[in-house]
Amino acid sequence: MAAELLTKHDSSVESYLEHCLSLGRQFPEPASVKLILSSQPVKGGQGIGVLDVVVTTAKQCYTSGVALLKPQRDERSTAIAAGTLEAGHHTPRQHVHYTWRFEGISRSVTHDVFHAHPYYNSEQQSQRYVEAVEGSYVTPSRLTERQALLFKDAADYANQSYFRLLSAMGPEVDRRMHQMYPTSGWSVPKTAERLGGKARKIRREVARYVLPIAQKTTYYHTLSELQLLRLFRASQMENFSDEARYIIGAMVASIAAQDPTILQELQKPLPAFTLSKSAYIKEGKDKFDAFLNGSDSVMLPLSSEVRQNLAIAVCNVLGEPRLSTEEALARLLDPGINLLIADVYDVGMLDPLTSALRQASPTFLTKLSHTADSQRQRHRMTAGATPTIERSFDGSANYITPMIIRESEELRGLYDEMMQNVYGNVNRCLEAGMLADKALTLLPNAHALRVVESGDLFDWLHRWKLRLCYLSQEEIFFISVEQARQMLAVLPEAEKTFRSPCGIRKVAGVSPRCPEGDRFCGKPVFNMALEQYSGGRLI
């Protein structure tokens, strides 16, 4: 297959690619990887491959006039391609992009590999909007017969628990929905139907906490050539499972079937390595939680000069050195003055004034569930340092409980019983000799992760604008409230800015206040102060 396409390349790369592809045969149902889009020349361009794009764009740097996109297969072009690759001059490899459709891929490998870097785009089937299919989970490769049976029993139990929880939550969710939305709305058939759909979504959102991270998902995934080369190069790292290696091999092979020149770009993967195994996972968790002191997210100390630094940046870009700190920060942060703060396209990134927000970079220690971390990952510019799943598990049940369950004695008892059984099943698999990277895919979506996350204030503001909305995922919402309140204590001038989208739009005079249309949450959040947000959310 791929070996027939490889030319002029290290045989070890050929062998490794074939190994990756062969891993698919180890799975009862390997993921489907289909290439559906790839960059093409606007006109003509027959026979143009990724290598031709690389060489043409590289030549443009030192060509007077225009370097035309055309086949570039001569000896000099080959030397340019190889030389830029080896020297790390990789920007020519960001011009070509590919889009795949992944089906039957685990949420575990999605979180650990394909969404664990900044340079991708995904549109993924949501467990909030789509009810899980019982039995739809990835069974790991290379299990013994007994291990496979234990894994199946454990995954089936978690799937069945999901449907039990869906049913059990019905009355409590309905009660809260009637509290949250005006009584008059329920008497209108179309509105009642919409709210009923929202109630079903809420039940799915909460019930998914018991599903295993091995549960399957489907999504469209887009990468540049450069990022695909990086994935291939990194695929021996310990957080890359057999499933990840197979999928990466299939991604490369799907391109090679139409453009064999991609194979000449592959570099030998870095040698396999394993980080030292820590015997202090529990101690590390306890130390992290001591920093949190009961909170979900705590900001590390920020420079006392942050307000002054932002003001200096504002004065500089405006050419107005006589502005006071207060005046400068108002120009930057008040949506009534800086209307770009309210823009849903975030064109402020192109505005010198609004870009001054990048001169402050808060860092937070955050504890959240695996499923909420999958949401957090999508904000790729507030990146997190997240331990591998093996370094988050010390053998004990350590999980997040959603608000609706936490505040209901009956639901809490049922949920805790389910979680104890789920974690007990994981430990039974480990005791049966199953490798940790396979057994731990049975951990629930609720499993607690501890993350150190950082970003500049422009990107935090983008994240908070989206996640302070009452429609956002529950955990991320409450974490965002905590983070914004801590930042507001440092930067009180942002009182009109660290708000929900509707709150910002009200200050900016943008209509309608809620940008979500008929998905409006039913609460006048635009009239609330930040400190009122948590108490007003019931679902």
Automatic annotation (TrEMBL):
One Pfam entry name: Thy1
Source species, domain of life: Bacteria
Coiled coil: none
GO biological process: dTMP biosynthetic process
Any one GO molecular function term: thymidylate synthase activity
InterPro entries for the chain: Thymidylate_synthase_ThyX (IPR003669), Thymidylate_synthase_ThyX_sf (IPR036098)
Protein name (database record): Thymidylate synthase ThyX
